[in-house]
Amino acid sequence: MSRRARWLIGTLLVLLLATATSVGAATVVAYRAGSVAVAVTPSDGPAVSLRVPAVLVDLAVALVPARLLRDELHGVHELRPFTPLLRAAARELERCPDATLVEVRDRGDTVVVEKTGDALIVRVDTGDERVRIAVPVRTLDRVARKLQSAVAAGV
């Protein structure tokens, strides 16, 4: 085998190993970050379910300019007094044991907010449809941090 062929094969093997390592590392990071899941089940139609890796949500939140949040979200400035509270609540949820945080029942409608594992889960049942949203608590903290920085920048 020629020297050039050995070099080419060696280079391809190194690139293959680097790619496999990168994909493996990205998979581990995505798995550990969890996922954001939304499921809507209407009583008169097909169910819709969407699961997105939380890493993509975190990346999207990081890439949104604070100016855009400030200018496009009407009333975001009204959140200013509450953003430290949102951040503190998100951080404390990580340490909180699994529990039902809120349960409201009214005329056949039910809303339940609970912390299960590393996720905050919101379940809504109106009789006409059922909605379930699960968000990793770490993602909530990142969103709260982004809102806080957007509101603070608009002072």
How would you describe the overall organization of this protein?
The chain is of the alpha+beta class and 155 residues long. It is 50% helix and 29% strand. It is built from five helices and six strands, in the order H-E-E-H-H-H-E-E-E-E-H. The protein has helices spanning 3-33, 54-63, 66-72, 83-95, 137-153; strands at 35-42, 48-53, 99-106, 109-116, 119-125, 129-136. Strands 2-1-6-5-4-3 form a six-stranded antiparallel sheet. Strand 1 and strand 2 form a beta hairpin. The mean pLDDT is 83.
Please outline what is shown here:
The chain is 50% helix and 29% strand.
- Strand adjacency order, main sheet: 2-1-6-5-4-3
Report strand %: 25-35%
**What is the chains' assembly state?**
single chain
Please report the distance between the alpha carbons of the first and last residues: 69 Å
Query: Could you spell the SSE succession in H and E letters?
Result: HEEHHHEEEEH
Portion of residues within helices: 40-55%
Spans with pLDDT under 50 lasting ≥5 residues?
none
Residue-averaged pLDDT, rounded? 83
Radius of gyration from the alpha-carbon trace, in angstroms:
22 Å
Tell the overall outline.
extended
